[in-house]
Design a protein that fits this description.
about 110 residues, Cytochrome Bc1 Complex, Chain D, domain 2, binds heme C, Cytochrome c, metal-binding
Length: about 110
């Protein structure tokens, strides 16, 4: 009797776990939790609100690759995560993971991906 109760409880959970794995696998095509489409939208809309929709500069400087070549991806992802103190450049750590910031940094340096 006790054993039957136990199996009834476990079976639906096992199905739920399988469904969740399938969902995660289908929604993240590239690397673990990176969603390139969403990050590209974020770069052009959110970053673009200060840096210009085409990233040519506005309140914030030009973010096109030719202007960022003096930085490596690691420096850029640090700037993205922590912002630049005493300027309008905010830190994005509350809104994105380190992996996402690295993706954005590489995307800025090499937009053709
Ligand atoms: C609220 C406005 C604002 C938003 C939103 C914003 N930035 Fe900035 N950003 C700035 C300003 C202003 C500077 C220049 C700071 C300074 O004076 O050094 C800057 C500087 C930078 C720099 C350094 C550029 C260089 O040539 O050294 C990078 C890289 C950068 N931002 C990336 C981003 C990214 C990526 C996003 C979106 C995730 C973003 N920013 C969103 C205002 C903003």
């Amino acid at each position: 009797m006790a054993e039957r109760v136990c199996l009834q409880w476990i079976a639906p959970r096992a199905r739920l776990a399988t469904a969740m794995v399938a969902l995660v696998a289908s929604s993240t095509f590239a690397a673990e939790t990176i969603d390139p489409g969403a990050l590209k939208r974020l770069v052009h809309q959110d970053c673009g609100s200060c840096h210009g929709l085409t990233l040519k500069g506005g309140l914030g400087p030009d973010l096109r690759a030719q202007n960022l070549r003096h930085h490596d991806a690691e420096t850029l992802s640090g700037v993205i995560l922590d912002g630049i103190p005493d300027t309008a450049m905010p830190g994005w750590r509350p809104l994105m993971s380190e992996e996402e910031a690295e993706w954005v940094a590489r995307y800025l340096l090499e937009p053709e991906q």
